[in-house]
């Protein structure tokens, strides 16, 4: 059953267009997106807007796939309508994606906070659109450690944002919180983060907020830290290693163990953004791109660490040593 859709305020269609940077794209949006850095004037790679107030909600949608949480509740669905795709997040928002026009149209559900549908746009929809274009987009946090990128992949609550913020507070770079392109090129894999910052719960914010950085409320329950990073607004770095978070360490033991073969490939797939998973061409392209990434031989490790703020410096030091060992 189609979800109810709220109509935009009458003056929204008259809003000016803002240019933002996300990954290495220029996004033109009639929605203010304070999470993103501004982009210089130029042709956009992607456009975003709210649905017109008088436009009816599409009904003739052929649903292709539903993603579910561990309890079996549907968290997202993808369907097609003509040449367009529909991404629906129940009770929250629906996004109409036109690959031909390079446009995303957002229809928030009644009462959906702007911070929430912006989060879905930036951290769910745009990464999936890039996957449809052939990029490999990891659902990961990323930190810059001594000039190279470490990616942290895991389920929600596994500690990705905590590690990124902890490394940032100790002088390393916090690249991205929730998404990063892994682009193989010239024998290495280049990491292109979505946008700078990390979202933290209140307790992590109190312990880990950097001495410099802007704090924004986000989604009503987390806070986004926007660090002052040196250099370009969308820094690129070579991929050094991927760490698959394995939950809190039992007995308080820190473990970093190599992972290889089918286990590493399945973990990479599990923690990636996908678009139309019923399209064989899309899947073939994604498997090919993942093979190219793994062929550049990044370090692949399983990481379990004690969820104890007092021991985070120890964890960060172990990560720095692990990346240093890969350069020998």
Word description of this protein:
The chain has 6 helices and 20 strands. The protein is globular, with a radius of gyration of 20 Å. It has 328 residues and is α+β, with helices and mostly antiparallel strands. The longest helix is centred in the middle third of the chain and has 19 residues, at 114-132. It has helices at 114-132, 160-169, 202-208, 261-270, 280-295, 312-326; strands at 18-22, 25-29, 46-50, 62-68, 74-81, 84-89, 93-98, 103-108, 136-138, 140-145, 148-153, 173-176, 180-185, 188-193, 198-200, 214-218, 222-226, 237-248, 255-258, 299-305. The strands form 3 sheets. Strands 9, 10, 11, 12, 13, 14, 18, 19 and 20 form a 9-stranded mixed sheet that branches. It folds into 2 domains: 12-133, no CATH class; 137-326, no CATH class.
Strand count: 20
Q: Tell me the domain tally.
A: 2
Instruction: Find the structural class using helix and strand composition.
Output: alpha+beta
- Order of helical and strand elements: EEEEEEEEHEEEHEEEEHEEEEHHEH
**Through-space gap between termini:** 57 Å
Helical coverage, percent range: 10-25%
* Share in β-strands: 35-45%
How many separate helices? Answer: 6
From the alpha carbons, calculate the radius of gyration and give it in angstroms: 20 Å
Quick one: biggest sheet? 9 strands, mixed
What assembly state would you assign to the polypeptide chains in this entry? single chain
Arithmetic mean of pLDDT: 83
Uncertain segments? 1-14, 210-221, 228-234
Shape: globular
């Amino acid at each position: 059953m189609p979800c109810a859709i709220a109509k935009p305020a009458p003056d929204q269609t008259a809003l000016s267009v803002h240019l933002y940077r996300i990954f290495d794209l220029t996004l033109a949006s009639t929605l203010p997106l304070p999470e993103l850095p501004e982009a210089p004037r130029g042709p956009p790679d992607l456009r975003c807007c709210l649905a017109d107030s008088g436009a009816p909600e599409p009904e003739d949608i052929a649903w292709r796939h539903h993603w579910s949480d561990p309890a079996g509740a549907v968290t997202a669905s993808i369907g097609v309508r003509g040449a367009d795709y529909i991404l629906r997040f129940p009770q929250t928002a629906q996004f109409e994606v036109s690959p031909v026009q390079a446009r995303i149209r957002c229809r928030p559900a009644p009462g959906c906070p702007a911070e929430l549908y912006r989060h879905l746009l930036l951290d769910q929809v745009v990464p999936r659109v890039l996957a449809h274009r052939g990029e490999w987009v990891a659902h990961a946090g990323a930190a810059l450690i001594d000039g190279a990128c470490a990616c942290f992949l895991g389920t929600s609550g596994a500690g990705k944002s905590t590690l990124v913020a902890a490394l940032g507070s100790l002088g390393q770079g916090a690249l991205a919180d929730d998404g990063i392109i892994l682009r193989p090129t010239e024998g290495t894999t280049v990491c292109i983060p979505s946008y700078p910052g990390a979202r933290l719960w209140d307790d992590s914010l109190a312990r880990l907020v950097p001495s410099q950085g802007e704090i924004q409320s986000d989604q009503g329950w987390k806070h986004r830290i926007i660090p002052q990073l040196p250099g370009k607004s969308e820094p690129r770095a070579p991929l050094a290693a991927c760490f698959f978070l394995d939950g809190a360490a039992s007995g308080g033991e820190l473990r970093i163990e190599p992972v290889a073969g089918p286990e590493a490939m399945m973990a990479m797939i599990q923690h990636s953004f996908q678009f139309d998973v019923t399209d064989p061409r899309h899947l073939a392209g994604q498997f090919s791109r993942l093979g190219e990434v793994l062929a550049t031989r990044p370090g692949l490790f399983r990481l379990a660490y004690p969820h104890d703020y007092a021991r985070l410096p120890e964890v960060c030091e172990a990560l720095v040593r692990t990346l240093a060992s890969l350069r020998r």
